[in-house]
UniProtKB/TrEMBL annotation:
A single GO cellular-component term on record: nucleus
Protein family according to the UniProt entry: Belongs to the ZPR1 family.
PANTHER family per the UniProt record, alphabetical: ZINC FINGER PROTEIN ZPR1 (PTHR10876)
InterPro entries: Znf_ZPR1, ZPR1, ZPR1_A/B_dom, ZPR1_jr_dom, ZPR1_Znf1/2
GO MF annotation list: zinc ion binding
Full protein name: Zinc finger protein ZPR1
Length: 467
């Protein structure tokens, strides 16, 4: 248990007072001492005053964390703790991994405090918030469970021999999984969306692991401390004991559609890289031959990060849309592309697949999409190159070389955009609105799983006001 602090953790502005820079920096042993913040804290051993040191940093390919180290000079008590500081994702994540080989046992696993872990074959279930978040492996999860069950077994064998025998039998079942005497399934369900299982075949598709995202229930949002606007206003009314909420809704009719088309709106947000406060500019516009979209751009004055995102201004279409673009000339690279936040990207020649959440929504060109995919994969190469074998590194290097050949038109390829929501768009180079010879557009009926991920299966369109 961490030491009890007597002062609140300083906010982002106070941390940046002396030196302007990112709040969460990459781990650097040389700068860690200078960047740490010291706070007087009560020692939980002798109850005298000790010192807690806080360091805000980023773990590569993981997330932002707060490292805390406490030491008491009077009794020598020490304590170290790590807490997550990353934002909660828009949706929860469910990961299902089929463990069939020793390589699957060595996959790295990132799990947050809110991760529910299941192995159905042995009826193992580790509830969320029962353990701290960690970076481990599939084998590490089993090992930690075995260590927890093995505690006090000697005492149980004397006082409760029947219970001890049942636990020994269950530990044997877990060891069978550990030594792969039988295949099994590992399931992670994280309502915060911050869990992850390594793909050893990256950047190629992972055939043994399936990742889906789901919309949280109201109870799950409240567990994460998320509340809707009506609940916030009700809470403010109770606190202020008056009928005027702090957050007032915009009166209907104050902003017309014409006003929104001509106005650039701004709102406060946090930088996706360093988590410093910055502003996002937002504008509603219309793409010819398509529909209205919302364009958002963010520039961070602290770390210089620039992001652009596009969201559909309309609803979900009746059918999903799949675009297949053949790339073998400079003209093909110049097509306009609108990728929505629900669109998957695929390059069959490279066996490369990028999920919808990796690049978000954006309005760019075919060349821009390919460059963004390449930069996304290269930017995460610390995951691929850290303590991995040479064969894996060479395979990844060869993949990047093939990507560069596609961009330089030395290797023909096909770019596939598969959007179940139907909110993506690829420009046709023909004089009419029909697709040209190198562009194939297919409309398809969504599967139940795709409707579930879009939150459509639970929508009630008739008598929806009834409970």
């Amino acid at each position: 248990m961490a030491a009890q602090t007597t002062e609140t953790i300083p906010n982002s502005e106070s941390i940046q007072d002396e030196k302007k820079g990112p709040i969460f920096k990459e781990i650097d042993a040389d700068e860690a001492v200078n960047e740490a913040t010291e706070i007087e804290s009560a020692c939980m051993n002798c109850f005298k005053t000790g010192v807690t040191r806080l360091l805000l940093t980023k773990i590569p390919f993981f997330k932002e964390v707060v490292l805390m180290s406490f030491k008491c000079e009077f009794c020598g008590f020490e304590n170290n703790e790590i807490q997550s500081a990353s934002e909660i994702q828009k949706k929860g994540v469910h990961i299902k991994l089929e463990v069939k080989s020793s390589g699957d046992l060595n996959r790295r696993v990132v799990r947050s405090d809110y991760t529910l872990v299941k192995i159905p074959e042995v009826e193992l279930e580790i509830p969320s918030q029962s353990q701290k978040g960690e970076i481990t492996t599939v084998e590490g999860i089993i090992d930690r469970t075995i260590r927890g069950l093995s505690q006090d077994q000697d005492k149980r064998r004397i006082e409760h021999p029947d219970a001890a025998g049942a636990i020994d039998a269950y530990i044997e079942r877990l060891n069978n999984l550990k030594y792969l005497k039988t295949n099994f399934t590992l399931e992670l369900e994280d309502i915060s969306g911050n869990s992850f299982v390594e793909n050893p075949l990256a950047p190629a598709h992972d055939p043994n692991c399936k990742t889906t995202h789901f919309t949280r229930t109201k109870e799950q949002d409240e567990l994460l401390g998320l509340y809707d606007a009506n609940e916030v206003q009700e809470g403010e009314k109770k606190i202020l004991k008056e009928d005027k909420p702090l957050l007032k809704p915009i009166p209907e009719g104050e902003w017309t559609l014409e006003d929104l088309h001509g106005e650039v709106l701004q709102f406060q947000t946090l930088c996706p890289e360093c988590r410093s406060p910055c502003e996002t500019n937002m504008k509603l516009t219309k793409i010819p031959h398509f529909k209205e979209v919302v364009i958002m751009a963010t520039v961070c004055d602290v770390c210089g990060c620039k992001t652009n995102e596009v969201k559909s201004g309309g609803g979900i279409e009746d059918k999903g849309t799949r675009f297949e673009v053949r790339i073998d000339s400079k003209e093909d690279l110049t097509r306009d592309v609108l990728k929505s936040e629900t669109c998957n990207l695929l390059i069959p020649e490279l066996d490369c697949e990028v999920g919808p959440s990796a690049l978000g929504g954006r309005f760019t060109t075919v060349e821009g999409i390919l460059t963004a995919m390449k930069d996304q994969i290269e930017g995460n190469d610390v995951m691929f190159q850290d303590s991995t074998d040479e064969a894996f590194k060479n395979r990844f290097k060869g993949f990047i070389e093939k990507f560069e050949k596609i961009l330089s038109l030395e290797m023909p390829a096909t770019l596939v955009l598969d959007d179940p929501a139907g909110n993506s768009y690829v420009q046709s180079l023909s004089d009419t609105e029909e697709a040209d010879a190198k562009l194939q557009v297919t409309k398809y009926e969504r599967s139940y799983e795709q409707n579930e991920e879009l939150g459509l299966n639970d929508i009630k369109t008739e008598n929806y006001e009834e409970q």
